[in-house]
């Protein structure tokens, strides 16, 4: 009889330990992750998906090249130099309204995205027309500007101002 009692007690202890060790996912915070099927267009193979990705990249590259070609054309016509002079005048006069009218939105200002002209104006003249930035823009030789894929960069380093063709019109896209 003692053996049965001892065996019963050991069984109860083992079952008790097993019950304590088992936890439900809700108690542990674990999440049950299930695979999700990716839906492809009807009849699309992996080659077709790769071609679709390449087509998107080509369209983006073509758009950049069109903008670059448009900028080259405007530079050849002297529009880039004239636009750069407008930027220089706005900086010389510290004219926020004039500068805001030359910008495309969203606009990058000091690595921050400015979504609208109102948000740009809210930055204030002190944030835009720093002494260093005004000096750099004033010193730019507008007859020697060069076009890059990013646009025309007025200034050799930071601070600088970048403009390019946006929807067929020259606009400032960055003030750093």
List the helices and strands and how they pair.
Blueprint: H1 2-21, H2 25-28, H3 46-76, H4 79-93, H5 96-101, E1 103-109, E2 112-114, H6 117-123, H7 125-128, H8 131-139, E3 147-148, E4 151-154, E5 161-166, E6 169-175
Parallel strand pairs: 1-6
Antiparallel strand pairs: 1-2, 3-4, 4-5, 5-6
What is the structure about, briefly put?
This protein has 176 residues and is of the alpha+beta class. It has eight helices and six strands, in the order αααααββαααββββ. It is rod-shaped and about 110 Å long.
Low-confidence blocks of residues: none
* Helix and strand pattern: HHHHHEEHHHEEEE
Largest sheet: 6 strands, mixed
Largest sheet, spatial ordering of strands: 2-1-6-5-4-3
Number of strands: 6
Query: How does CATH name the architecture of the domain at 59-175?
Result: Roll
The CATH topology name of the domain at 59-175 reads Nuclear Transport Factor 2, Chain: A
**What percent of residues adopt helix (DSSP H or I)?**
40-55%
Distance between the termini: 89 Å
| CATH hierarchy class name of the domain at 59-175 | Alpha Beta
How many helical stretches? 8
Shape: rod-shaped
Radius of gyration, Cα only, in angstroms?
32 Å
Q: Kindly state the mean pLDDT as a whole number?
A: 77
Relative strand content: 15-25%
Oligomeric assembly: single chain
Helix-strand makeup class: alpha+beta
């Amino acid at each position: 009889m003692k053996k049965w009692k001892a065996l019963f007690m050991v069984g109860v202890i083992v079952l008790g330990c097993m019950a304590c060790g088992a936890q439900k996912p809700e108690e542990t915070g674990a999440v049950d992750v299930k695979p999700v099927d990716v839906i492809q267009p009807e009849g699309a193979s992996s080659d077709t998906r790769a071609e679709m990705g390449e087509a998107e990249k080509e369209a983006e590259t073509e758009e950049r090249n069109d903008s670059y070609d448009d900028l080259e054309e405007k530079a050849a016509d002297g529009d880039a130099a004239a636009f750069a002079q407008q930027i220089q005048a706005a900086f010389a006069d510290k004219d926020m309204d004039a500068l805001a009218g030359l910008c495309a939105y969203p606009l990058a200002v000091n690595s921050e995205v400015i979504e609208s002209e109102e948000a740009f104006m809210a930055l204030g003249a002190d944030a835009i027309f720093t002494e260093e930035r005004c000096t750099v823009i004033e010193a730019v030789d507008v007859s020697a500007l060069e076009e890059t894929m990013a646009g025309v960069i007025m200034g050799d380093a930071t601070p600088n101002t970048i403009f390019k063709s946006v929807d067929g019109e020259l606009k400032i896209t960055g003030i750093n």
